[in-house]
């Protein structure tokens, strides 16, 4: 295990060390201590390594992650795992706004709650939130799966495209063009796998699926009031 | 009492209303028939104060000129040296603006890369991501980081020579992108991760930051991901140039791209294009002032765009303080957009060469703003690249001609004192004296 004291080493040197790891590196276990809410920790990684951040992180921790597994032992600031491509990011605490924004792949697990705009413009990422999520989550979500064990705030899935949204609890309101969908066997399968991978204690059957009604896919003047 | 013979009353000529002109009436009829606003490409078509309203004075007894074919007049520019390990060195200060793959065909993007590279300048991606054609044919490629994040990925980010965070575009400050279903081919759909054939709306605001404090952190993240190697530009529309430039520089930008309302777009509402934003002529001085107030003029480069057409425009932009310019529409015209040789086809589309702006419909006779394989095949990227190179060379020669006439051995040495204004508006906006006077309209202490 390689331990980096972020305060002593500084952000640039820390990220540089992590970026220097090749696909076949032997140094696969890393720990970052004294995170103290710093921004852009462990962003842009591209190697199959596991990084554990002790403490809470600022903006964009694990941004654009590829391959790596990043554990945040604390709460995470805005834009955590934004535009993630692959790999896994686990937040033990809560996550601020825009968690997993525009992510293309990989799995983001939030053990606590996620704030507003979780999964905004998601493009293939899978996100599992053990707690609740805030308003405008999955806004313009394009693809991937958002799984919420708790409740969802206002305007869930507003203007979403092909992303699948699964919520176990209450949904305060659905956004424009988002509707309740039928849960088919393939969806239960997807959910089962994601819940297992995210270590979530819930049954697929307890969830409701939401997604795009596809009424706003092509402009129609009769829908003008929805825009 | 004699009655006037009705046949003998003089007839007035039919008089068109200036308020309800034929143009306006046709807009009203179109709206009444369709129920949807007009969407089109291009920039503001209305008449605006422009660089044409400024003139260079040239040399005189107090300023001696340089010999046209003998004495050097440098045109090079370095962009992004403030924080980046690898700033961009360009031979000419005319760059190709970001235009999306999706709006433009793959071969058109390739031609932009070929022409720009041959002329020693950079080209820019656009909404929809980086294509292999474009990366392959561009020596220097600026990768746009847009609100939609279509196709955004760290591999392309690290392949880029610079990153341009797009906050706004002159044609539509505050507006997002629009790519209508007709243009969503399999390839475009795949790059954007969306179903084929649907209207794609690009967000108007970034999904994971708002405001200048967040922007600073976003720039930090992008620098960390790319190892502080490449410059980071911030592109803003000509909305509030003094404050936007100030905030971009404070957030850590290496360069600011400032785009006036004449600037083209692939598609947006006509009302947006014509009624939101400020003319290019009006935004440059406040932007330069902001850089000067921060002590950053020439350290953070200012790249001006929006209606740049000729070497004269380039020289005027630089005299007013820009470090470089960017061109979009002019580059497309150089490639063959709106060429009168397709007049019959433009007529069939209900328009005429020069006025064709329904780029979003994907039926471009010149094969540039389309994803239709048959139309695309009309366009030869090698020939297109050659034409663009020629055009860039001519613009450069023109700018050098003016600079030498003003006694300057580098385009950057052009200065506001070389200029006079032809109209009061231009004088006030560009803070240049009205020709024949020492009067700067709006500036206290100057007089006619
Ligand atoms: C067809 C087309 C597509 C464009 N796409 C983008 C884009 O994807 N991103 C962007 O920031 N600006 C885009 N623009 C705007 C240009 O980057 C630039 O600001 C503008 O074209 C400059 O003005 P000019 O056309 O008068 O030279 C586009 C412009 C055109 C004409």
Features:
heterodimer, A: 227 residues, alpha/beta, Pectate Lyase C-like, eleven-stranded mixed β-sheet, 3 helices, 11% helix, B: 448 residues, TIM Barrel, two-stranded antiparallel sheet, 16 strands, globular, binds flavin mononucleotide
SSE topology sketch:
The complex is a heterodimer of chains A (227) and B (448).
Chain A: E1 2-5, H1 6-9, H2 11-19, E2 29-33, E3 50-54, E4 69-73, E5 88-91, E6 107-110, E7 123-129, E8 143-148, E9 164-167, E10 178-181, H3 185-197, E11 208-212
Parallel strand pairs in A: 1-2, 2-3, 3-4, 4-5, 5-6, 6-7, 7-8, 8-9
Antiparallel strand pairs in A: 9-11, 10-11
Chain B: H1 22-34, E1 39-40, E2 54-56, E3 77-79, E4 88-90, E5 94-96, H2 106-119, E6 123-124, H3 132-137, E7 141-145, H4 154-159, E8 162-166, E9 178-179, H5 186-192, E10 200-201, H6 211-225, E11 232-237, H7 241-250, E12 255-259, E13 268-269, H8 270-275, H9 280-293, E14 301-305, H10 311-319, E15 324-327, H11 329-335, H12 343-348, H13 373-376, H14 381-405, E16 419-421, H15 424-430
Parallel strand pairs in B: 5-15, 6-7, 7-8, 8-11, 11-12, 12-14, 14-15
Antiparallel strand pairs in B: 1-13, 2-16, 3-4, 9-10
The structure holds flavin mononucleotide.
Describe the overall structure.
The complex is a heterodimer of chains A (227) and B (448). Chain A has helices spanning 6-9, 11-19, 185-197, and strands at residues 2-5, 29-33, 50-54, 69-73, 88-91, 107-110, 123-129, 143-148, 164-167, 178-181, 208-212. Chain A is of the alpha/beta class. Chain A has a single domain, classed as Pectate Lyase C-like. The longest helix of chain A has 13 residues, at 185-197. With 448 residues, chain B is of the alpha/beta class. Chain B has one domain: TIM Barrel. In chain B, 33% of the residues lie in helices and 12% in strands. Chain B contains 15 helices and 16 strands. Chain B has helices spanning 22-34, 106-119, 132-137, 154-159, 186-192, 211-225, 241-250, 270-275, 280-293, 311-319, 329-335, 343-348, 373-376, 381-405, 424-430; strands at residues 39-40, 54-56, 77-79, 88-90, 94-96, 123-124, 141-145, 162-166, 178-179, 200-201, 232-237, 255-259, 268-269, 301-305, 324-327, 419-421. In chain B, the strands form five sheets. Chain B has an eight-stranded parallel β-sheet with strand order 5-15-14-12-11-8-7-6. The longest helix of chain B is centred in the C-terminal third of the chain and has 25 residues, at 381-405. Chain B starts with 21 loop residues before the first helix and ends in an 18-residue tail after the last helix. The mean pLDDT of chain B is 95. Chain A binds chain B through residues 11-12, 15-16, 19, 39-40, 43-44, 46, 58-60, 63-64, 66, 78-79, 82-83, 85, 97-98, 101-102, 104, 117, 120-121, 123-124, 139-140, 142-143, 159, 161-162, 217-219, 221, 224, and chain B through 34-36, 148-149, 152-154, 157, 180-181, 192-195, 197-199, 201, 203, 207-209, 214, 217-218, 220-221, 224-228. Flavin mononucleotide is lined by residues 41, 43, 97-100, 103-104, 126-127, 144, 166, 169-170, 235, 259, 262-266, 305-308, 327-330, 359, 369 of chain B.
């Amino acid at each position: 295990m390689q331990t980096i004291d972020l305060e002593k080493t500084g952000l640039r040197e820390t990220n540089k060390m992590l970026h220097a790891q090749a696909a076949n590196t032997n140094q696969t276990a890393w720990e970052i201590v004294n995170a103290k809410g710093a921004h852009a920790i462990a962003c842009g990684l591209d190697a199959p390594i596991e990084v554990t951040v002790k403490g809470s992180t600022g903006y964009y921790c694990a941004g654009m992650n590829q391959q790596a597994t990043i554990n945040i032992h604390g709460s995470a600031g805005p834009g955590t795992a934004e535009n993630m491509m692959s790999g896994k990011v686990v937040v033990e605490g809560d996550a601020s706004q825009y968690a997993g924004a525009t992510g293309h792949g990989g799995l983001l697990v939030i053990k606590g709650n996620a704030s507003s705009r979780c999964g905004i413009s998601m493009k293939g990422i899978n996100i599992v939130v053990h707690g609740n999520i805030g308003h405008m989550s999955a806004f313009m979500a394009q693809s991937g799966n958002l799984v919420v064990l708790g409740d969802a705030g206002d305007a869930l899935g507003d203007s979403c495209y092909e992303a699948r949204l699964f919520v176990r609890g209450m949904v305060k309101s659905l956004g424009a063009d988002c509707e309740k969908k039928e849960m088919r066997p393939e969806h239960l399968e997807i959910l089962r796998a994601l819940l297992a991978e995210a270590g979530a204690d819930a049954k697929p059957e307890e969830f409701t699926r939401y997604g795009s009604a596809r009424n706003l896919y092509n402009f129609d003047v009769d829908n003008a009031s929805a825009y | 009492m004699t009655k006037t013979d009705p046949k003998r009353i003089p007839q007035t000529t039919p008089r068109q209303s200036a308020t309800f002109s034929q143009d306006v009436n046709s807009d009203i009829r179109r709206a009444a028939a369709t129920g949807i606003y007009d969407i089109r490409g291009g920039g503001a078509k209305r008449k605006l104060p422009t660089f044409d309203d400024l003139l260079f004075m040239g040399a005189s007894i107090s300023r001696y000129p340089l010999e046209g074919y003998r004495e050097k007049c440098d045109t090079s520019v370095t962009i992004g040296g403030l924080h980046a390990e690898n700033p961009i060195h360009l031979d000419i200060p005319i760059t190709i603006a970001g235009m999306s793959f999706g709006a433009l065909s793959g071969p058109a993007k390739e031609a932009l890369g070929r022409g720009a590279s041959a002329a020693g300048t950079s080209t820019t991606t656009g909404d929809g991501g980086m294509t292999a054609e474009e990366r392959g044919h561009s020596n220097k490629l600026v990768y746009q980081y847009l609100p939609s994040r279509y196709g955004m990925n760290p591999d392309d980010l690290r392949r880029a020579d610079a990153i341009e965070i797009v906050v706004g575009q002159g044609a539509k400050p505050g507006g997002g992108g629009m790519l209508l279903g007709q243009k969503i081919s399999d390839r475009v759909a795949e790059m954007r991760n969306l179903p084929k054939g649907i209207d794609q709306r690009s967000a108007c605001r970034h999904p994971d930051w708002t405001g200048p404090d967040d922007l600073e952190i976003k720039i930090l993240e992008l620098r960390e991901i790319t190892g502080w190697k490449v410059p980071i530009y911030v592109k803003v529309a000509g909305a509030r140039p003094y404050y936007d430039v100030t905030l971009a520089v404070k957030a850590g930008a290496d360069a600011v791209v400032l785009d006036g309302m004449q600037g083209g777009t692939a598609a947006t509402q006509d009302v947006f294009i014509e009624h939101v934003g400020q003319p290019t002529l009006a935004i440059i001085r406040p932007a330069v002032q902001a850089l000067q107030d921060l002590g950053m003029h020439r350290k953070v480069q200012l790249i001006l765009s929006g209606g740049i057409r000729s070497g004269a425009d380039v020289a005027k932009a630089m005299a007013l303080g820009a470090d470089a310019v960017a061109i979009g529409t002019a580059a497309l015209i150089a490639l063959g957009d709106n060429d009168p040789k397709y007049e019959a086809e433009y007529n069939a589309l209900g328009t005429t060469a020069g006025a064709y702006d329904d780029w979003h419909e994907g039926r471009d006779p010149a094969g540039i703003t389309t994803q239709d394989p048959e139309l695309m095949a009309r366009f030869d990227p090698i020939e297109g690249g050659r034409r663009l190179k020629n055009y860039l060379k001519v613009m450069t020669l023109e700018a050098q001609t003016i600079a030498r006439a003003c006694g300057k051995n580098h385009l950057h040495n052009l200065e506001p004192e070389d200029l006079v204004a032809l109209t009061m508006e231009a004088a006030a906006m560009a803070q240049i004296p009205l020709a024949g006077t020492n009067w700067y309209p709006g500036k206290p202490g100057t007089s006619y």
